[in-house]
# Entry
Amino acid sequence: MLKQKIVAISLGGSIIAPPEGINAKFLQDFKKIIVGFVKKGIRFIIVCGGGSTARNYQSAAKAAGKLDPEDVDWIGIHATRLNGHLMRSVFRGLAHPVMIKDPTRKFKWHTPVLIGAGWKPGWSTDFDAVKLAENFGADLLINLSNISYVYDRDPKEPGAKKVESMTWAELQKIVGTKWEPGANTPFDPVATKTARKLGLKLAFVKGTELGEVKKVIEGKKFEGTVVV
# Structure
């Protein structure tokens, strides 16, 4: 049943810390799920995004004056690192002692859990997750956000339809080809291109629906979008 020895997760920052405050209940339940699979021999790469924390800081900075895109990116990166340090603390005792900021750096990983966060301007945490999946041989990547499905267009638009299964080429058409800091797309366009070349399986799941997350890891049918 559990075919993946290493599972990579790109965890949206707005799941960790939504606008109303840090979701302590999610952290508790998420930890229980991961620990349960760790006991079955599964290892996890968890890369944290900046989410609403990043966007709030970016918006405030933009309101004060014109910003260089690199400055916008650095604000977001530091938000991801705050979330990452929180997550590493949650998994203390199971997690690699250092939060990974550079996914291209070679290092040895022996613990059940590895926590990552933002790297540098021009690269998203989705890309970091893809790169770490490549480095350590994960073939399943789970994207946890505040939506259950990828839609064929902006879900706020009339007539937008959810997609349960799609190819990487179809996802690339939706997200585009260029990364923009603070962009609110289902997945990073550059990470999409890289994951497509690697042949990764990508599952989009609503992060707070942990029962569905569990189904993905178990290889069962789940509520969400799968990309192959």
Remarks:
- The two ends are 19 Å apart (CA to CA).
